[in-house]
Amino acid sequence: MDHLLSCYQPLPVAFTHGEGVWLWDTDNNKYLDALSGIAVCSLGHAHPAITQVIKEQAGKLLHTSNVYEIPYQQELATAITQYAGLQRAFFCNSGAEANEAAIKLARLYGHTKEFQTPQIVVMEGSFHGRTLATLTATASRKAQAGFEPLVQGFVRVPFDDLDALHALSANQNEIAAVLIEPIQGEGGIHVPHKGYLSALRDLCTQQEWLLMLDEVQTGIGRTGKFYAYQHENILPDVVTSAKALGNGIPIGACLTGPLASNLFQPGKHATTFGGNPMVSRVALTVLETLHEDNLIENAARQGDYLIQGIQEAFSNNPHVIEIRGHGLMIGIELDCPARPLMQVGLAQGLLFNTAQTHVIRLLPPLILQQNEADEIIKRLVKVISSLN
């Protein structure tokens, strides 16, 4: 009897160990991991620096709570806000929790402006989590169904549509913030046109709205910059992170700039586990490794190479509609449902998943090398050729 709640439909494979971009299953079959645990294991599997720091810290101290000072947490806040160009950080355990913190900041900000019902603008095609507030912010009726009543206070507009935002600014007078992914991940790897984020930054400044960026999937180097907004040289008011920040150790972060840094005061928000000595030290090691090994630059370089190679490989394939992405965040849109191909991928020793119904999603580790990118393309060709 299966004693797990039926929340997942896992593929029929279980892994015992990994090394770099490779995983081995219980039958000792070897797989090229082009998913990274859904953008989590950006340093790959069993990275020696991460393994060592986990061993060391586990033998010293795991948890004390935020009743006391945590020096590693303070070091991590200094490092990540410097990389982000922001001021302060709150650490939690997941991307959904980080987005919950951002939503609460927007509500507080709206009430400082004496709004009775502060509104947060969110996008069609968005995904922000599965708690009640983040589920409401997410644009999926399938995910929301059965969980009504949802949380009030959200207004939805099309993604990558500045005109819709300008129309809102003329008609809505209690907007406190805009919450948006710089690149939509679960929505199908949708990249906005160049200049969209900077124009959105200008509009938010003009309207005195908080610009809140959900970089849970795009952040920590995945797109070839530490954060995706840095491609347009802007600064948001709030940024959320998780996934790759811990390379598999659960951690989330909500970062703030000047407009939002003084909204939370003692008693307004908290967490029991967030930012404990173990996760903070691991996250510090992740950031150090990313920069010492030039992995963000590698993500940009290998991402360009991989996207170009995929475009060349499928330029005449009638099933491939579009190839989208930035850095090592890549989507291949097909003319048919993509999920059945995940099983085909297992047979070819390639791990990936899907976004929406028709998009193959690739999120390989940032340590990816050119020969491994070539192998991804080679195996993808075999996977997609199964459609013929």
Count every beta strand, where a strand is a DSSP E run of 2 or more residues.
15
CA radius of gyration: 21 Å
CATH architecture of the largest domain: 3-Layer(aba) Sandwich
Class based on secondary structure composition and strand pairing: alpha/beta
- Summarize the helix and strand pattern as letters: EEEHHHEHEHHEHEHEEEHHEEHEEEH
Measured between the Cα atoms of the first and last residue, the distance is: 39 Å
Write the layout of secondary structure elements.
Elements: E1 15-19, E2 22-25, E3 30-33, H1 36-39, H2 48-58, H3 71-84, E4 88-92, H4 95-112, E5 119-123, H5 132-137, H6 141-144, E6 154-157, H7 162-171, E7 175-180, H8 196-207, E8 210-214, E9 238-241, E10 252-256, H9 277-292, H10 295-313, E11 320-326, E12 329-334, H11 340-347, E13 350-351, E14 353-355, E15 359-362, H12 370-385
Helix pairs in contact: 2-9, 3-9, 7-8, 10-12
Describe the model:
The protein is an alpha/beta fold and about 400 residues long. The protein has two domains: about 15-45 and about 295-385, Aspartate Aminotransferase, domain 1 (Alpha-Beta Complex), CATH 3.90.1150.10; about 50-290, Type I PLP-dependent aspartate aminotransferase-like (Major domain) (Aspartate Aminotransferase, domain 2, 3-Layer(aba) Sandwich), CATH 3.40.640.10. About 35% of the residues lie in helices and about 20% in strands. The chain has twelve helices and 15 strands. A seven-stranded mixed β-sheet has the order 4-10-9-8-7-5-6, sandwiched between helices. Strands 1-2-3-13 form a four-stranded mixed β-sheet. A hairpin with a 4-residue loop joins β2 and β3 (about 30-35).
